[in-house]
Write a structure and sequence with these properties.
- The complex is a heterotrimer of chains A (680), B (257) and C (329).
- Chain A is mainly alpha-helical and 680 residues long.
- Chain A has 28 helices and 8 strands.
- Chain A has helices at 15-38, 50-62, 71-99, 107-138, 147-173, 183-195, 198-222, 230-240, 272-280, 286-289, 292-295, 302-333, 335-340, 359-364, 370-374, 382-396, 401-413, 426-429, 449-454, 456-471, 488-492, 496-512, 523-532, 545-554, 584-592, 627-637, 648-661, 672-677; strands at 444-447, 476-477, 517-520, 541-544, 567-570, 596-597, 642-645, 668-671.
- By secondary structure, chain B is of the alpha/beta class.
- Chain B folds into 2 domains: 2-214, HUPs (Rossmann fold), CATH 3.40.50; 226-257, no CATH class.
- A 9-stranded mixed beta sheet of chain B has the order 9-8-7-10-6-1-4-5-11, sandwiched between helices. In chain B, strands 2-3 form a two-stranded antiparallel sheet.
- In chain B, a hairpin with a 2-residue loop joins β7 (139-149) and β8 (152-159).
- The longest helix of chain B is centred in the N-terminal third of the chain and has 17 residues, at 36-52.
- Chain B starts with a strand and ends in a 5-residue tail after the last helix.
- Chain C has 329 residues and is of the alpha/beta class.
- Chain C has 2 domains: 5-188, 3-Layer(aba) Sandwich (Rossmann fold), CATH 3.40.50; 205-328, TPP-binding domain (Rossmann fold), CATH 3.40.50.
- Chain C has a 7-stranded parallel beta sheet, sandwiched between helices. In chain C, strands 15-14-16-17-18 form a 5-stranded parallel beta sheet.
- The longest helix of chain C has 17 residues, at 18-34.
- The chains are: A mainly alpha (680), B alpha/beta (257), C alpha/beta (329).
- Chain A binds chain C through residues 402, 405-406, 409, 416-419, 454-457, 618-620, 622, 626, 652, 655-656, 659-660, and chain C through 216, 243, 246-247, 252, 258-260, 262, 274-278, 280-281, 284, 299, 302.
């Protein structure tokens, strides 16, 4: 039967358990130190959904779903990951056989282990070589190098290499009828046999065996002190991640008069999960590589924010420990301490906002969530940005001056431009649409949003949409002058108080009319009404116009001819795509009227923000390139006739970008509804 | 330093102006805001307090809704508020209101009184200067920059085509022009605190005034609305004709040149 | 018995301001209709030579108060002198231009006299009952108040450019009276230290009466000189749209719009600006809007009172010439 002698040529292997216990102790101490750091944060119950958590670990760790989306580093990682997975499996089986008297290391399992350990070990070895090549020769911008990176690579590399040489030495000495299964070991044995005699081979084997063992123990001991920790933390973070509607900030209860601080300005105000996040991040840089702010030359870098918070967490941890020591001493000295303890200064350390994270970085974020979408281990960046913006707005009132105008306009007239609220209904009613007051039995509420109601360019979109809805015989009405800004920009700019007042007023109006179903034409309104209003008691069925129109087309209620033979590139709005996974419906609509779709370099989940999200629509862009112009360049590059959008902000940004690039003759930015209307 | 800021609650700048059944301006459904120029006065008051210490009091006249304006000022950082709330106030003109205000302000010690240079509703720009006269103290109008040293202030004020610098001793009235500062946005912490700050409401009787003392000097015969503007007119002809026509229209029809 | 229409004539460096001539012209018309004389008061130092101009512009009586303390306007001194003069002369009405001086002086004077004041009027008519009625814009011109007073004198400040200036009649004779300046010490507490007339004729954007603004259609920073030429003819400020600022043609401080300055001039001339909502948010409350754009579909035409569809590089220089003609008239 196929097998081999375990611990061949090795005496006293039981010592390894002693070493193992020492390594484990170092490991446990390391974990304990980190756990203590995480516990500096606030409690947050993340055990709510266990099964979805386990499923996520299977999908995102074991099936590598997100990791492989970036093919080159993804495959590199897969080689290392699956390599070590199978090697760990092999080692476990051997341990069971040798020391737990489980006689299983023979027959097909033996051969299976032999071949997989060789195959995957080789894959891991290649993965590590590629990783080193990428990191130190190719040097992509998104990687920053620390000693830990090199140590880890060398450690893994030597563990693998020594393993194969050990195997080769054994095969060279003991004829193995199944050596072909251990093909790497067999290759190794050929030069070894040629160069060394049997005695030399035996000493080499035993030396490397112990070296291999020492390295493996070093691996265990080093694990929680290094990036290796991600092997454990990554899956845990996938398990603990936010599920349900994406990117919703925590509500603040403004009725609670005991609240004294709003937003977060100190590390310890964040939940343990936020601090945990900073350890989970292993600086792969996918976030940075997909951040429109970073790519357009702003100082903001999502990776750096997380890493800088990590450093602050360590500083805070050290200070808290030192302080506890002082307190303990003081308690020991009792009376004398009472007078002195007042003199011991409260440790404040570096300020999270300003010193650790520059304020400009917080305002540069478009909340496009590409960073989070690309992160293989589900680090959550955007909610932290919003929490800190809240502090700046609600407590410090320090924010870009332009935001103040938008805030005041929203307060006084319920729209960011400050156009008189009594004129909101004018344009839409001019299209023959009734208000809910006039037509309370309407099945759908049509929510044009501020842009659709006030902005001349987006009014054209409203006109197209209304025509399409009318043609399909949809019974709908608007709130008219009773509609207010949904609160998206206010909330994302950190003005939770303003959001709260806008949202509660909107909800009250809609509940009074008994609104059940809402059609929106702005993804920001869509996301807020659908996902965020439930926090404040507004529960409606909300449908984005592209989804609604597709249903109308599919059910035959909306009959469209083929539009002109044109090509279009569809720009995924962040709040429709990444926030709500609506990628296909707008494209299907465009195909339904016979248009050819050309995809831009960044598309779907990797779509590149237009630059207007997160309230950036109302802020000036002083640093670096303009994001909308970069995105327009991507559209120009595929030479379409139209850029199709499904968001008024994106439409505005593209219109500006097209004007800036002076390509208005060749390229038109149109909403999907406008394109459809041409085929009516 | 004792600082008094007089503020007025006005219609929102975007408010649609209509006349009610009696031919008066209809305030129904209109958003009310703090007169934007008064915000400069509030901000300057808070800054003076932050620099020199003391107390800032905001004084206003108006109906119960004016409390909102005072609360907003308190949220920005003003210490306390006084509201003269009496229906008789509506029957007074600038002359009477200056008297009311002078009486109300006499309730608190003051070194400097800050007021917006104009209220965007009636656009009269009288009260602050009349108040100074009623209190027999100097005033500086349309101030762009204010420097205070002890009881002495140096104010740079706007004049047609330039500025002038005036030295004045306290107490004095200063009217704020756009450019004096950038008013702060109230923090939510400030809004919460403002709910607990003192706000005193006074009637004319409390001030020892009766309607008789305040009978208006001006008579408003009527209000009217402008004839609706003609929709945008595109001028015909070649460039030279159009330019000529435009200049003529700006002078004769729009009367802006 | 109160008599006459008193015009407080404003002069700076011995130049009579245009609004004072406008008031004299209009007062002359009312005087001719009602029989009330026009009394002009001039304050300053070394002002004798102004009497003839004031007479030629319509005054029946010219009162000159010449004193070193009146050389520059100060609230206290002017109020002190005029209060005494008005109490002595007892005019039916006192009118002054709604200038920086008028806005500061009139309310102080009215309060001291215990009379009403109609400020910033854009209309004035003779009235058989109450002598004069005034029309003044309120709510930024979205409504008008029509008012008068039974208390004498009726005081008003009149917005410049409300009335035309009549051709001066050099043959007109007026009684010229010199009064001594009696200034109460209590009125001299505020001290004028310095007057700085802006070296640049171009005012601050937010304070300008007229703004000439250029957008993407300007094509480059070198072309702004044609806007500056136009602006300088009428003392306007020069602004820019975000597109022009983003292109680096103008500094951000010149930007008009949502993320720039919010302005509300009497006249806004938009050249090569398409009229995106972000721009309109910053200038939509301008009283009159002129658009010059080669795209007839540009949104700016939806808000403009007057529009010219054409090449701004052709239109603007022509407009500059037209404005020059008007100003020189």
């Amino acid at each position: 039967m196929a097998t081999r002698q375990v611990y061949w040529n090795v005496e006293g292997h039981h010592w390894l358990y002693l070493f193992f216990i020492i390594a484990l102790a170092i490991f446990v101490y390391g974990v304990y130190k980190r756990v203590k750091l995480w516990k500096l944060g606030q409690p947050d119950n993340r055990w709510k959904d266990v099964w979805p958590g386990i499923k996520d670990v299977i999908v995102y760790t074991f099936a590598h779903k997100r990791i492989l989306k970036d093919a080159y580093p993804g495959l590199m990682h897969a080689g290392i990951f699956y390599g070590f997975l199978f090697l760990a499996f092999a080692t476990a089986i051997i341990t069971l056989q040798a020391d737990f008297a489980l006689n299983i290391f023979h027959g097909w399992l033996y051969l299976f282990i032999k071949v997989t350990a060789n195959l995957f070990g080789l894959a891991a070895l290649i993965g590590i070589v590629v990783a080193a090549y990428r990191r130190y020769i190719q040097r992509p911008d998104r990687l920053d190098n620390k000693p830990d990176d090199a140590i880890t690579l060398v450690l893994l590399f030597t563990i693998l290499l020594t393993g194969f040489v050990i195997q080769g030495a054994r095969i060279a000495v003991v004829p193995d009828p199944w050596a072909g299964y251990a093909f790497v070991g067999q290759w190794m044995s050929i030069p070894l046999k040629a160069m060394l005699n049997e005695a030399q081979l035996l000493s080499l084997h035993v030396f490397l065996w112990w070296l291999h063992l020492a390295l493996a123990m070093a691996f265990i001991a080093y694990f929680p002190y290094s990036k290796l920790f991600h092997v454990l933390l990554g899956p845990l973070n996938q398990f603990f991640r936010n599920r349900g509607p994406i990117g919703i900030p925590e509500p603040i209860d403004f009725e609670d008069e005991s609240l004294e601080t709003f937003g977060k300005s100190q590390l310890r105000e964040f939940s343990w999960k936020a601090l945990f996040n900073t350890d989970v991040c292993l600086r792969c840089g996918r976030c940075q590589d997909n951040c429109p702010a970073y790519l357009s030359g702003k100082h903001l870098n999502p990776k750096r924010i997380i890493q800088d918070m990590r450093v602050l967490m360590e500083e805070t941890g050290a200070a808290v420990q030192a302080q506890n020591k002082v307190l303990a001493q003081a308690a020991g000295q009792e009376a004398a301490a009472a007078s002195e303890s007042e003199e011991t200064e409260e440790w404040t350390g570096r300020a999270l906002i300003g010193e650790v994270i520059p304020e400009d970085d917080l305002w540069a974020c478009t909340t496009c969530r590409s960073c989070e979408q690309q992160c293989p281990v589900f680090v959550e960046h955007v909610d932290k940005t919003i929490d800190m913006r809240r502090n700046l707005v609600l407590m410090e009132t320090r924010f870009p001056a332009e935001a103040q105008l938008a805030f005041k306009n929203m307060e006084n007239n319920g729209n960011p431009w400050g156009i008189g609220w009594t004129t909101r209904a004018d344009f839409i009613t001019g299209l023959g649409v009734k208000t809910f007051e006039e037509d309370p039995t309407a099945e759908y509420l049509y929510w044009p949003g501020c842009s659709g109601a006030f902005d001349a360019r987006n009014q054209k979109v409203s006109a197209s949409l209304v025509k399409l809805l009318q043609a399909a015989g949809v019974h709908f009405a608007i709130l008219g002058n009773e509609e207010k800004c949904c609160g998206d920009s206010a909330r994302k700019l950190g003005n939770e108080y303003l959001f709260y007042s806008l949202a509660t007023e909107n909800i009250e109006v809609m509940n009074n009319y008994g609104v059940k179903k809402i059609i929106t034409q702005c993804p920001h309104c869509y996301n807020f009404l659908k996902n965020e209003y439930p926090q404040l008691g507004g529960n409606f069925e909300v449908i984005h116009h592209t989804v609604f129109l597709l249903d109308l087309v599919k059910s035959g209620k909306l009959k469209l001819s083929n539009a002109d033979k044109k090509t279009v590139t569809y720009h995924d709005s962040c709040y429709l795509g990444r926030y709500n996974q609506i990628y296909e419906q707008p494209r299907e609509l465009l195909k339904a009227v016979g248009l050819d779709i050309k995809e831009m370099a960044h598309t779907g989940e990797k779509s590149f923000c237009c630059g207007a999200g997160g309230g950036r629509m109302w802020l000036e862009e002083h640093e670096g390139q303009r994001i909308n112009e970069m995105r327009t360049d991507e559209a120009i590059a595929v030479k379409p006739d139209y850029v199709g959008t499904a968001c008024p902000f994106c439409l505005t940004m593209f219109a500006d970008g097209i004007a800036a690039r002076e390509v208005g003759e060749e390229l038109k930015a149109l909403d999907v509804a406008e394109i459809l209307e041409k085929a009516l | 330093m004792n600082i008094v800021v007089f503020i007025k609650q006005t219609f929102d700048t975007e408010a649609k102006i209509v006349l009610d059944g009696n031919g008066k301006i209809d305030a129904n459904g209109v958003n009310l805001i703090i007169n934007p120029y008064d915000e400069f006065a509030i901000e300057e008051g808070i800054r003076l307090k932050e620099k020199f210490g003391g107390e800032v009091t905001v004084v206003s006249m108006g109906g119960p809704r004016a409390q909102e304006a005072i609360r907003t000022a308190l949220a920005m950082g003003i210490d306390k508020g006084i509201l003269v709330n009496d229906p008789e106030v509506d029957n007074t003109d600038e002359y009477g209101r200056a008297q009311i205000l002078a009486k109300a302000i006499a309730q608190v010690p003051y070194d400097v009184i800050l007021v917006g240079r104009i209220a965007i509703d009636d656009g009269a720009s009288q009260i602050a200067v009349r108040l100074a006269e009623a209190l027999s103290i100097p005033s500086v109008s349309s101030v762009l920059k204010l420097e205070v040293a002890g009881t002495q202030a140096t104010a740079t004020r706007e004049i047609d085509g330039g500025t002038e610098t005036i030295e004045v001793s306290f107490p004095a009235v200063i009217t704020a022009q756009k450019g004096l500062n950038e008013p702060r946005y109230p923090s939510v912490a400030g809004i919460m605190k403002a709910k607990k700050k003192p706000l005193q409401t006074l009637t004319l009787a409390d001030l020892g005034l009766s309607a008789g003392d305040l009978s208006p000097k001006m008579i408003i015969n009527e209000y009217s609305l402008p004839t609706p503007r003609q929709g945008g007119r595109k001028l015909a002809g070649d460039a030279a004709q159009a330019a000529n026509e435009l200049a003529k229209l700006l002078r004769e029809e729009a009367k802006v040149l | 018995m109160a008599k006459g229409i008193m015009i407080i004539v404003e002069q700076r460096n011995l130049q009579i301001r245009k609004v004072s001539l406008e008031l004299l012209s209009q007062a002359r018309k009312i005087a001719d209709a009602t029989g009330e004389p026009v009394v002009a008061v001039v304050l300053g130092q070394g002002i004798d030579e102004l009497a003839a101009t004031v007479a030629a512009s319509g005054a029946d009586k010219v009162i000159l108060i010449d004193d070193a303390k009146l050389a520059e306007y100060t609230t206290g001194a002017y109020t002190s002198v005029l209060n005494k003069l008005i109490r002595k002369e007892e005019p039916q009405a006192v009118l002054i231009g709604n200038t920086a001086v008028g806005k500061d002086l009139a309310p102080r004077l009215a309060q001291r006299l215990g009379v009403g004041l109609a400020s910033d009027c854009t209309g004035m008519e003779a009235d058989s009952n109450s002598f004069l009625t005034f029309k003044r814009p309120i709510y930024a011109g979205k409504a008008f108040a029509h008012l008068t007073s039974n208390v004498r004198p009726i005081m008003a400040t009149i917005r410049p450019n409300t009335f035309p200036v009549a051709a001066p009649d050099a043959a007109r004779q007026a009684e010229v009276v010199k009064e001594a300046a009696e200034i109460d010490a209590a009125d001299l507490v505020a001290i004028l230290k310095e007057v700085a007339i802006a070296a640049s004729k171009r005012p601050e954007l937010t304070e300008a009466n007229i703004i000439v603004s250029g957008g993407r259609g300007m094509k480059g920073p070198e072309n702004y000189n044609i806007l500056e030429d136009l602006a300088d003819v009428v003392g306007a400020a020069v602004g820019a749209s975000r597109a022009a600022v983003d292109s680096g043609w103008k500094e951000h401080k010149f930007q008009v719009g949502q993320t720039g300055k919010t302005v509300a001039p009497t006249l806004y001339i938009a050249c090569g600006i398409s009229g995106a909502i972000q721009h309109l948010a910053g200038m939509g409350s301008s009283k009159f809007i002129v658009a010059i754009n080669k795209d007839p579909e540009a949104n700016i035409f939806n808000v403009a009172d007057y529009g010219i569809v054409g090449d701004l590089f052709e239109v603007v220089p022509l407009l500059t010439e037209e404005f020059k003609k008007l100003v020189n008239e």
